[in-house]
Design goal:
100 residues; elongated; Arc Repressor Mutant, subunit A; alpha+beta; three-stranded antiparallel sheet; 3 strands
Amino acid sequence: MKKKTAIDIQKLEAAAGKLRAIAHPMRIAIIDLLTENKKLTVTEIYECLNIEQAAASHHLNILKNKGLLDSKRDGKMIYYSLKIQVLANLIDCINQCVSA
């Protein structure tokens, strides 16, 4: 007999939110950029990606609110970096789903 898996709706909603956050080409580009550079300011990000500052801030805010980015203030500058373990866990989860 197959064991019944309990569904935790809060965990499911949190995972869906993270997946929605990364399901945008510009946010994938931001993640890729931060993977290469470890930490960047919003100015560095929008200049590298050739987008408007408001668009970069919008996408950074979504990623940060879903727990995928950290931000640290240094004087007037705010530096963004990836939460590597959160992303690693998300990728592991995706890999399990794809191989199932």
